[in-house]
TrEMBL record:
One Pfam family cited in the UniProt record for this chain: 7tm_3
Keyword Transmembrane helix assigned: yes
Residues passing through the membrane, by range: 514-540, 552-572, 584-601, 628-648, 680-698, 710-728, 748-768
Subcellular location field: Cell membrane
Keywords for the protein's UniProt record, in alphabetical order: Cell membrane, G-protein coupled receptor, Glycoprotein, Membrane, Receptor, Signal, Transducer, Transmembrane, Transmembrane helix
Biased composition (Polar residues): 837-846
Signal peptide interval: none
Biased composition regions of type Basic and acidic residues, renumbered to the chain: 822-835
Lineage of the organism: Eukaryota, Metazoa, Cnidaria, Anthozoa, Hexacorallia
Protein name: Extracellular calcium-sensing receptor
Membrane topology category: Multi-pass membrane protein
Amino acid sequence: MSLAEAMIFAIEQINNNSSILPNVTLGYDITDTNLTNRHAMNSSLDYVNVHKFASIDPALNRTCAILPKEQLAPVVAVVGTGTSRSSILVSNLLEVEDIPLISYAATSDELSSSAYPSFFRTVPPDRFQSKVMSDIAKHFHWTYVAAVAADDAYGRSGIEFFRKQSKLQGICIAYNNFFPINDERDAKIKTIIEELKQMENVGVIVLYCDSTSALSVLREAKSQKLEGRIWIASEAWGNNDAVIHKKELQPVLKGMLGVVFTDITVPSYKRYLLSRTSLYRSNPWWRVFWEDQYGCTFNVTLSKRSNKALCSDNLKVTEDIFDKKLYDSKTTYVINAVYAIAHALDAIFKCKFPSTGHCPRTKPFVETRDVLEYLKKVNFSTETSSVFFDENGDSLATYSIINYRVDKDTGGRVETVGTWEAQRLNLNSSAIVWNNGMTGKIPRSVCSETCKPGFRQTEEMNCCWQCIKCSQDTVSSKHGARNCTPCPADYISNEKRTKCHAIPVERILWGDSIGIMITFFACLGVVATALVGAVFIWQNNTPIVKASNRELSYLFLFSIGMTYLWALINLAEPSDFICPLSEAWFYVFYTIAVVVLGVKTKRIVHLFEHRVPRSELSKGFIEKRKHILIIIGILGSDVLILVIWFLLDPPHPEIDKSVRTSYYLGCKVTSNVAGSFCHYLLIAILVTMSFVCCYFAFKSRKLPHNFNEGKFIAFALYVLVISWVTFYPVSLTIRGKFTVVVSGSSSIISASGLLVCIFVPKMYIILLHPEKNTVAYMKSQISNHTFRQSTADRNSRHKSCPPDSVPSVHGSATTSTPADTPRYRESPKLPHPGDLESSNKVISYL
């Protein structure tokens, strides 16, 4: 009734408006299809036949019951139908005569196809409704939903577009099924509900169907106690009273959200209905309406017979009656459809936009083909909206989002909680009453929780997934990421794998704890070396200092101090100056230390083993200048190799990228074969000198107790060799800043070994036993050693004599010795302490 009155209201407004279709009166023919395809097709067939007959012979119109007699005016356009399926059928039939069909309710996207060129609609198509549904699911983070629909054009197209939109939104349709609209419907619906009950993680169900089918689905859900789910209703049943007011469906419908056409009431149409009284009964439905609404009758006879009250002429349409009985959201679309036809006809009669250069024909009647073309160009505004059609015959889409509420009086009602306009969803989430009867707490509909940043989401069976943490140096920065993005070169991921950051270039700084420790011990070593040197200078003329070969001792102390300082050079920031300096520093001063130890050890062995006569003390190996020449020669070789090395392949700073988590700024020692050769040659010289020194130290192991400096030299060499034998394998294994720790520690340990083993025994005598630091004490020690050595030599000779040269028991020898051979050989002379002291050649004293 409301839709029919809306059409009549629009036509009367147009006929009374002189600005549109002046001198032209619109007529109408209203047929009730009862929402069945058969009735819709029968009525449409009549329109087609009348148009066809009128086109052949206008006189045939006189026999038609549809149009007024003696007046030729076949139907130029049809407003309808109320369903997508019937609209598809009717549109195909009307297209035969190019009769436009403008629907106020058919929303199937199938009708947007070019296969229906004569179809228009003032209601939005389902693809927008499906977009709204997916936007709602996205808004509430419902990623695991079910979709159920009627197996017709409306349901299939709606679900198909919902599936496409959901995929774009990252929403998974866990269950999708259709039920027929024939006698097998109830059995299929029962199976669908049974399957949905098994899917406990599915908290949201989209239902695309008309109100009759929706009632069947909801009743079956109630029967199987499928409660606690959120239903998303399509516009065909979302605000339908036949569904909403069913009190028995409250447990199922609680929390339902619906997508319906925007509730736009045309003010003038509302005033038109509110002005109606029971005097107005020109149309047959009004008589039925008054009698049903007020429980009376206009039939006097019936009133007397049934004791039913007689309807008065003063009955009115109240606001309450309008809201509950006469309001229909589709009335706006009916009025817009009528106005669209009127504007197309107005353009035809006023000869607007002629496509062929000639005005459209209006006599004896308007061609439906012209109406079809002019409908495509209409663009006008009404009281509530703008009306135009795109290339598919579709109009602008606006929707309202409704929420079901339990109502004690009506059984149930719906409230608007949001809108969807201009492709944007606006929801008042706090106003939604959910299926638990409360607001605020949004129900969940997910199979697996969305993966947090730092994880990637892997899809599995049934639309579920697992969250796997991104691997090293890959990241994901958003929720639900499907893949982890690798970090660029020279970047690594943080621990949470959420972002990449530049790989830090590290080195040990002076202020670091390790740097402070190395600096402390290195400086302590330098101070200790300086103190030893100061004591030696203080006791410069004492036997201990003189016996140590003062020049070599001071040179040795200097090399030890420089070895301590090498640990500090390693802490300096690598540069083109520091890198060569570090290598040169190491090989020069370590070579000096080892060569000085070798010379000192060789002197000890030479003096005591060869027993050099006093007259030869100024000759041979023990001369000072030869010591200096040996040191200069070996050191000069090192310097020459270093110069060649630095010219051909100088060490330079390099960022070590072998460790992925942190880069290390260090020195690259060599880059080519020439540099490597020089490097290994320097190592070979140092190792060779160390072994030679160890050899002489080994030979000096039998020196007298007070002259056994060789033993301490051997200890010092052992510490030196062990520290560097440890350093080189470790330095080749460990990468990064800890190479500085190893090299610095090795340098400090080896320098400390040299300082302690060589000089601490001397400092012990000088500071704690000065009575032993005298010439007389040293002479006595040398004499004792000479006596013991001579006695050992004589015993050795007696044991080696033949039997005939041994004296008999009677005191005479059996055989005499030759006359030119003395019986006892004179012992060779050892160096005299006074001569050794004056020539600065005294053996070290412990």
